Amino acid sequence: VRTGGGEPNVYEAFAQFGEGKPISYIGSVRAGDPALAWHAAKEAYTRRENCTLLWVVPRAAMTVSTPEDATVLSIGTRMTYRVPTYPSGARRQRDRIAEWEPEATAVTQ
Amino acid sequence: MSAVDSDRDSRLAQKLERWDDLNDEYRSSAARIASFQALAEFIGVLPFSDWVLKVPDYARKQMLTAKIQDEVGHGHVMARVAEDLGVTREQILWDFVEGKTKLLNIFHYGIDDWEELGPAALLQNSAAIVQFQSLTNGTYLPYVRALKKIEKEEAFHYHHAWDLVHELQTHGNQDQRQILQSAFETWLVRVLGYFGPPDLDTIESNRMWQLGLKVDANETLRQRWLSKIIPVFRGLGFEIRPDLVHCDEATGEWKYSGIDWAELKKLIQTGGPRYGEWVERVRRSLTTNSRYAAAAMRAAA
Fold first, then answer.
1. CA B188, B131, B233: angle at the middle one, nearest 5?
2. What is the pLDDT of residue B3?
3. Across the interface, do A66 and B19 touch by the CB < 8 Å criterion?
4. Which of B296, B275, B299, B301 has its CA nearest to residue B39?
5. SS3 B143
6. Cβ contacts of residue A40 below 8 Å, gap of 6+?
7. CB nearest to A28's CB, from B66, B80, B296
8. pLDDT for B15-69, tens place per residue?
9. What is the pLDDT of residues B69-80, one digit of tens each?
10. Using CB atoms and an 8 Å cut-off, which of residues 35-64 of chain B contact chain A?
């Protein structure tokens, strides 16, 4: 994880196109101050679609993941019990055990 | 062709982001392609902004203004891609003013008649769309994202240009239709040249192609463009002179003429009819703006 960067005049822009839609990253602008950055983003990114929200943030103020964080961010490498299909897998195993038990009882008799 | 196609997937499979480990060659090549396109967007505006005060129709003036705003926006978006790779927009423009970077052939010309603007814009937009659709399969993702944003707006411009040509072709007089036809023929040859020299034999040794920053060969794109745009002009009532361009029925390949590659290279090196004027305009704008930019940056610091 890294905070800041060497680009003091770079702002990242985020926008929502349509109420209820997700707010997405749309690109960056270079500007002298935050208000100008907001206007630059408006001109470059929102003129042709109905934009409902527009946010800008200095890149230097952001805390972002770096390639080294890939492992901890990737779901496939950890915590299989969080995957939606985990319960059905566990259930199948339970069923298999349940089917097996009567025979096991027969053997002990 | 088949070697090119089978290679396509592996060559383009690994996508890269700004923060990935980019080697020097890749970084400078990506910076070059983004700078080159930013410059083309900025300069590409000038023949059209020439017309803002002269458009003979209020709605067309609004549409033209919107196109110009879009193109300048594209320049800014592309410049951001270049800036993140270490090339500022000021440097992109100064390099142009100082003659260190060259323009593609189509950006060396102006537009002399209102009737010329539609065919010129329609041919340019359709070529850009074919070019960008190919490049969005490239390996540098910030560039790909910028292209996707640009592509969407190019589609608007395409429809505007088509409608302008349609209007003049349908309601214009004989003189106007004649200018349309001759503008089509002039710009057709220019845009054919814009795709670059035939390169199917050499593409695999092209470094930009190997890096996945160039996706298709020039000739592949030119053929793709012709198969899209020629029927459009035919549909608009233009005469397509077979000696200029025709499709070989047997092979499906387009044959074209009229490009003198040596002449085209010379034009790019020494400058076309409006080149000097564009250079002066950019120089003036940079000189004037640098005062205010410096003051604004100081105030913000």
1. 35
2. 44
3. yes
4. B275
5. helix
6. A11, A29, A30, A31, B76
7. B80
8. 999 989 999 999 999 999 999 999 999 999 999 999 999 999 999 999 999 999 9
9. 999 999 999 999
10. none
Question: In this predicted model, what pLDDT tens digit does every residue of B119-129 receive, in sequence order?
Answer: 999 999 999 99
Q: What's the distance, Cα to Cα, between the start and end of chain A in Å?
A: 61
* Amino acid occupying residue B296: A
Smallest CA–CA distance from A68 into chain B, residue: B20
Measured between CB atoms, which of B69, B80, B89 is closest to A27?
A: B80
Total residue count of chain A as it appears in this document: 109
Count of Cβ atoms closer than 10 Å to residue B12 Cβ: 13
Contacts of B77 in chain A (CB under 8 A): 27, 44-45
Interface residue B300 vs chain A (CB under 8 A): yes
Which residue in chain B has the smallest CA separation from A13? B77
Query: What's the rounded Cα separation, in Å, for the pair B35 and B230?
Result: 31
Please name the residues between 137 and 156 in chain B that touch chain A, using a CB distance below 8 Å: 145-146, 149, 152-153, 156
* Residue-level pLDDT at B293: 79
Task: Give dist(CA B301, CA B89) in Å, integer.
Answer: 20
Sign, Cα dihedral of B208, B211, B217, B221: negative
Report the C-alpha gap between B11 and B209 in whole angstroms: 9
Per-residue pLDDT band at A78 (split at 50, 70, 90) = low
Q: How far is A10 from chain B (nearest CA, A)?
A: 9
Q: Which residues of A touch B84 (CB under 8 A)?
A: 7, 10, 28
Q: What is the ipTM of this complex?
A: 0.85
